[in-house]
Task: structure prediction
Amino acid sequence: MTLTQTAPEPQRQLGDPETGGTLIIDLNAIEENFRTLTRLLVPSECAAVVKANAYGLGLEPVTAKLAKAGCRTFFVADIAEARRVRACTHDVTVYVLNGFSPEAPAVFAELNLHPVINTLMELAEWDAFVATSGWRGGAALHVDTGMNRLGISVAEAGALASRLQNQTHGFTLLMSHLACAELPDHPLTARQIRQFRELRLLYQGLPASLANSSGIFLGERAHFDMARPGAALYGINPTPAGANPMRNTVELTGRILQLRQLRQGETVGYGGAWTARRASRIAVASLGYADGLLRSASGTDAKRGGSAVIAGKRCPIAGNISMDLVCIDVTELGEDAVHRGDFATFIGEQIPLDEVAESAGTIGYEILTRLAPRCHLVYRGI
Result:
């Protein structure tokens, strides 16, 4: 992976001849998305989830940008990610979603981290650490209101509520996680909000957080004191039933290596899965599933796959996507519209991330987290 830092100037195509794909990451768009969500949440706080390398877009540059924009609370998956956040900024709150690790307890005090407590056993381990170390940084209490993943039960949370009568209870946040927030009419969403509201009455005085990206758009009933957006910050549509209110943050391109002429009846790629139904022209671009372009977006005789924008026009992917290469049907383009060395755009303003995900039978989260490892990275707005 190679990295280029650029100012927020209008720069159309940036490529590195040593790599196949180029991923342009617009930090200014991420900041704008943060500000959009912050306005929707007032007076509640807008935190930021930067786990999984900030959804694949670079934990350090994203964290630094958001901290400078005023974000004061960050959520990560594990201690390793928390270390990276701390290397960027020292004056923010960092929560570790995967909880307290008894194998590395001192790190929480060393780096001033807050574990998210997910079980009663974990709480006992945390209490033991606090008692022996004297650390008073505090922890979040995660209650499972319907996700059935991590978190203590609602009944366990109710039994623990009396702990708040002790001034040294050690909790800094009460939180839960919505399972179906992108489906506002789903009965589980209403049930989770109701249960969390009832719990909050037992934990009066403790900040509370329920909403993820989609939860923010459910309105004030889901906002509480803090929301924890991730996907929306990075341009994924938090309201999939309607238009995307967030700005696109990435552009993925691949350099065209070769143009080929096909006769009617000839096939393309592994398995001969795409057959030319007429005399056709194919552009071969230097991007493949090793660069995050999922093979499930292949275009075959049996199904239409993804597409790319070349010379301002959408062109369908032809054949199975290979590890390093993808073929694109450019027959509809004029003879002089595309040349070797031009770029094909696979994600961008004309091909939204969520549409790319749909063509691959997945979600934008998976697409984003797979893009960066091998691509040439270009950051705008550093």
